[in-house]
């Protein structure tokens, strides 16, 4: 009888371990890097991919993949975004507008909005999270941009 309980507990731990391991700070699919070329094999039919795409991060608390990707983009493109926002045009601003879920037909308005609010957004911003919060707050005031971010 005792070995049945141990076996049952082992099975439960094994089945629940996927959720426990999913809540780490690595990149997508559990890789430690966000470099898309870091893992170039086709894994769409592998058991790992199937398990990760069906379980995902359902047991994770406070995990927002799109927020994570936006922060990573801001970290890598900050200088370019700052320069383009001061000019009110540029491909990095278009990419940021797309990441924020803005209507692509309103990219010029998005760039103008960042140019007109340049000092409140880019001046004295200590972290990229604060910038993102300021930008999201600003975008809620302009529903014509149709941003879903």
- Estimated helix fraction: 55-70%
Average pLDDT, rounded to a whole number, is 75
Q: Which structural class is indicated by helix and strand composition?
A: mainly alpha
User: Which overall shape is indicated by the principal axes computed on the Cα atoms?
Assistant: elongated
Strand content: under 5%
SSE inventory with pairings:
Layout: H1 2-22, H2 47-55, H3 65-87, H4 91-99, H5 107-116, H6 118-122, H7 128-140
Helix pairs in contact: 3-4, 3-5
In short:
The chain is mainly alpha-helical and 149 residues long. It is built from seven helices and no strands.
Plain-language structure description:
With 149 residues, the protein is mainly α. The chain has a domain at 65-145. Helices cover 60% and strands 0% of the residues. It is built from seven helices and no strands. It has helices at residues 2-22, 47-55, 65-87, 91-99, 107-116, 118-122, 128-140. Helix 3 (65-87) runs antiparallel to helix 4 and helix 3 (65-87) packs across helix 5 (107-116). The protein is elongated, with a radius of gyration of 21 Å. It starts with a helix and ends in a 9-residue tail after the last helix.
Using brief descriptors, characterize the structure shown.
single chain; 149 residues; mainly alpha
């Amino acid at each position: 009888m005792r070995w049945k309980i141990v076996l049952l507990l082992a099975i439960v731990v094994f089945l629940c371990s996927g959720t426990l391991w999913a809540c780490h700070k690595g990149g997508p699919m559990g890789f430690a890097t966000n470099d898309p070329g870091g893992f170039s094999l086709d894994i769409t039919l592998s058991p790992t991919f199937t398990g990760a795409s069906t379980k995902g991060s359902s047991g994770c608390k406070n995990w927002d993949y799109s927020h994570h990707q936006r922060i990573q983009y801001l970290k890598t493109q900050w200088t370019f975004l700052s320069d383009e926002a001061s000019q009110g045009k540029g491909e990095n601003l278009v990419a940021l507008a797309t990441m924020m879920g803005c209507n692509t037909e309103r990219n010029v308005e998005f760039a103008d909005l960042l140019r007109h609010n340049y000092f409140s957004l880019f001046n004295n911003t200590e972290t990229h999270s604060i910038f993102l919060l300021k930008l999201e707050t600003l975008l809620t005031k302009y529903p014509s941009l149709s941003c879903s971010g």
